[in-house]
């Protein structure tokens, strides 16, 4: 009997050891495969960087400028049904990164996908590097295509929460940015083109140019941006739909409790009336 028990124990121990060996081996293979993929990715990135030309335009600040235009100018232009001229530096076609940004696919917080070659990346900065290195040939490198050059006029630092937006005001820089801002207003919205252009010209001055001063009296984007009322109304409607059944349930419970107490009082009254001596 003891001999059989010992044989069974040895057999079970052998199976357990074999399973542990398989687990360790598979883990080692997975780790080696991951390391190989990472090293291959780094190697490919280095190879791409060797062939990529230098682009003297900040993608990050161009993205900020595009965001400012989209949120604080485009709604007013669309409301006026005004068509920006291609000569206007604020026109979407005058952004060298525009096509690449449109091919940037956001999946979730930890996944971005390239719309050209379908490669996936964990962070936006990595797909930016991929665009710079692999798809640089799709950039529009003609003159005046760098939106980052307009950041001074468009208050990009305020959108990017940059430290420079909180630094001590420089009157000379404020004057340069105001001059650039006013030149954009004149070229993009010539007052001679009619009432719509004239209204947008005035709006652009108030929305962007007036804030280029060290007096602190004017703030950028004073006319507001995209209407957030739709989202607010949707949130309020959803809240009402959630709370309405709770409210009716509360009323039902209160009514049921009151009816129960009324019936109990009636029974007590009847019982007291019957027990009263004749």
UniProtKB/TrEMBL annotation:
InterPro entries found in the cross-reference section: Znf_C2H2_type
Transmembrane feature ranges: 231-254
GO MF term (any one): transcription cis-regulatory region binding
Keywords: Membrane, Transmembrane, Transmembrane helix
Domain C2H2-type: 114-135
PANTHER family documented for this protein: RE51073P, ZINC FINGER PROTEIN-RELATED
Name of the protein described by the UniProt record: Uncharacterized protein LOC101493304 isoform X1
Organism from which the protein derives: Cicer arietinum
Gene of this entry: LOC101493304
């Amino acid at each position: 009997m003891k001999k059989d028990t010992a044989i069974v124990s040895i057999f079970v121990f052998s199976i357990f050891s074999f399973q542990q060996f398989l687990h360790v081996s598979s883990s080692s293979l997975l780790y080696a495969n991951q390391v190989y993929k990472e090293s291959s990715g780094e190697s490919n990135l280095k190879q791409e960087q060797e062939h990529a030309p230098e682009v003297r335009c900040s993608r990050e600040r161009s993205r900020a400028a595009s965001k400012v235009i989209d949120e604080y100018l485009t709604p007013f232009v669309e409301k006026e049904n005004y068509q920006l001229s291609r000569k206007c530096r604020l026109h979407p076609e005058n952004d060298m990164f525009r096509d690449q940004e449109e091919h940037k696919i956001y999946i979730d917080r930890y996944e971005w996908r390239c719309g050209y070659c379908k490669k996936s990346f964990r962070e936006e900065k990595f797909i930016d590097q991929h665009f710079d290195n692999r798809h640089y040939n799709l950039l529009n490198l003609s003159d005046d295509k760098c939106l980052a050059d307009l950041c001074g006029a468009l208050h990009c630092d305020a959108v990017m929460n940059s430290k420079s937006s909180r630094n001590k005001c420089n009157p000379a820089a404020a004057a340069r940015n105001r001059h650039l801002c006013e030149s954009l207003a004149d070229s993009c919205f010539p007052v001679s083109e009619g009432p719509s252009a004239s209204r947008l010209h005035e709006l652009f001055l108030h929305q962007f140019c007036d804030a280029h001063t060290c007096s602190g009296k004017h703030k950028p984007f004073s006319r507001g941006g995209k209407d957030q009322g739709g989202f607010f109304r949707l949130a309020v409607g959803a809240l009402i739909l959630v709370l309405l059944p709770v409210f009716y349930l509360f009323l039902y419970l209160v009514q049921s409790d009151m009816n129960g107490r009324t019936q109990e009082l009636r029974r007590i009254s009847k019982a007291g009336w019957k027990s009263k001596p004749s």
